[in-house]
Structures are given as C-alpha cells and as structure tokens.
Amino acid sequence: MAIDTRLLSGIETLIAVAETGGFTRAAATMGLTPSGVSRAVARLESRLGVRLFDRNARSTTLTEAGHRLVTEVAPLLAGIEEAASSAAGASATVSGRLRVNCDPWFASLLLAPKLRSFLDTHPALTLDLVARDTLGDLVSEGFDVAIRFGEPPPSGLITRKLLEARIVTCASPAYIARHGRPIHPRDLETGTHECLLFREPATGRPFDWEFHRQGEILNVSVRGRLILNDVATGLAACVAGLGVAQPMTLGIDELLRSGTLIDLFPDWCDEYFPLHVYHPSRHLPPAKVRAFLDFICNDVTTAQIKHDGFTGL
C-alpha cells in the first residue's frame, strides 16, 4: 500500500502546531519557517476540505474537525515512530521530551522528591512537568502522560489506578477550643461549625461532603465561608484553625500523629479518593512513556503505599 508522504508531513505539522499552540513556535521546533508551516497546514486543509484551525491575532485553536483528527492520528504517529525505533534496535532508548500533566499535590509531595533517580537513569530524556488541577485534553495539548485524583471521566484514554487515599475529617486544637468538637457528622449541619470547602476542578463547585462507614454513606450539608482549590492552602488554613476540612491522608500522617490536626470521626473512615495515571494509547506507547509509567507504578506509589498503608493496585 502506497503512503502519501505529503499527507503524513501535513499531519505532523498539524500536530506540532496543536502541541505548541502557534505557527511560529511549531516552526521553531520543526526547523522550518512560519510561512512554511502555514503553507503545510493550508495544503492539508485543502486536501481534506475542512478548516483545521481557528486563527486570530491572539490565539490559534483547533476546530472541532482539527481536534478530532489530532485525537485519532497522534497515537498512530507515535506508534509508527516507536515501531521504526524498535526495528532499528532502539526500542529501549528513553530520550526526547516527555510532557506530564500532574496533580499539584502529588507532584510536590511524592513525585518531585524521587525525580532525581528517574532523570539520572535516563540522561537523554527531558521532562516537562506541568502541575495543574485539570486534566484537559492530553492529545491536543501535547501531553504524553497525566496523573490525576478522582474517578476518570469518559474518554478514549488508557487509565490505570495507582492508589486510593483515605479521606479524613479533621480540625486543629485551636478550632476545637473555639467551636467545640463535633461528636457526629450531622453536628456539622447545625450552623455552629465552619467547614473549609474545596472546589471540584471539573464543575467549579465545592465537593459534597460524605461520610462512609461499613457500606453506609451519609451525605451532610455543610457551610463555610472559605472556598479553596489548592490542597496545601487548605491544610494551612485548617492548621490555623479556620475550619473543619476533609483532606486525603496522603501527606498529612505526621500532622495527625503529632496532634496538629485531630481526626474528628475515626469511626467514619471508609471513604477513599483514587489516583489514576492516563496516557493516550495502549498500542506501542513510546519507550519514554513506558519508562515513566514503570517509575510511577513501582518507584513512587508502591513506596508510598508501603509507608502509609494506602490501598494500592
């Protein structure tokens, strides 16, 4: 079967523009001129009979047709590159740029302290780590891997659960001294307690508060004047006595052991929050992706599970 190299070249240029966010930046990464990139995209649009980008003076964004093409084709091109490398005997070479979209709390708490060993093992690899609270669109944004808390949304991405962190309801001794200690989760509904609310990235609304015990799920309507979207800030506010919080136990075990934070309802301790890793394609993932997945699964989360007793894979 004949391969239209001009079509492949146009698609490669399309993906470069989508990943970098602009024609000029794509030209720099591909060693071309911006006008050459523009002509290649124009030829591809003419060949397909659809507009692939919406362009103005301030931004370049994929159209719906362009997004669909990038989503479907990018994993195939990655597979072609990997197959070619494998045929050349270089399938074990971990090199190039790896873009990772990572939850900020996981990135700072667990990932960053272990990155030195990973980078030392793979000196030809450059890691582009983006810490943010949303998954976004991995393919059109040029990410190879993502690590996120919560249940996976419907998508064509490959997902794997790394661990489940327990949810704890806690407050500081200073808060308890001012407001009293609630005896039952329903006490948080009385209006005498302030709760620190955490904004869900997907909806923009605060998470609902639930309490789990031996299969029983209790929904509690709480109130609070402070809404946050950063775990570290929420913990600092809780330690300072601003309110009751529902963080994951991941990373706060010392605060609980020392009494800096008090577990208010140890009998209601059966709620867990999952952590997943995502990547675009199961078929022939690049060597750099396989290496990072092995690192995350074996070196990072396994060690944390053994240390903190979380539920693992």
Could you characterize what this model shows?
The structure is a single chain. With 313 residues, the protein is α/β, with parallel strands linked by helices. It has 10 helices and 13 strands. It has a 5-stranded mixed β-sheet. The chain has a two-stranded antiparallel ribbon with strand order 1-2. Strands 7-12 form a two-stranded antiparallel sheet. A hairpin with a 2-residue loop joins strand 9 and strand 10. It is elongated and about 70 Å long. It starts with a helix and ends in a 5-residue tail after the last helix. The C terminus is likely disordered.
Write a concise synopsis of the structure shown:
It contains ten helices and 13 strands. It has helices at residues 5-20, 23-30, 34-48, 64-87, 104-111, 115-121, 173-179, 231-239, 253-258, 287-308; strands at 53-55, 60-62, 96-102, 125-131, 145-149, 158-166, 170-171, 196-198, 209-213, 216-220, 226-228, 262-263, 272-279.
Low-pLDDT stretches are: 305-313
- N-to-C terminal Cα separation, in Å? 43 Å
- The order of strands across the largest sheet is 4-3-5-13-6
Major beta sheet summary:
5 strands, mixed
- In terms of quaternary structure, the protein is single chain
Query: Which percent band covers the strand fraction?
Result: 15-25%
> What share of residues is helical?
25-40%
Please write the string of helix (H) and strand (E) elements.
HHHEEHEHHEEEEHEEEEHHEEH
Number of helices: 10
Task: Report mean pLDDT, rounded to a whole number.
Answer: 85
Shape: elongated
Q: What is the total tally of β strands?
A: 13
CA radius of gyration: 24 Å
- Secondary-structure-based class equals alpha/beta
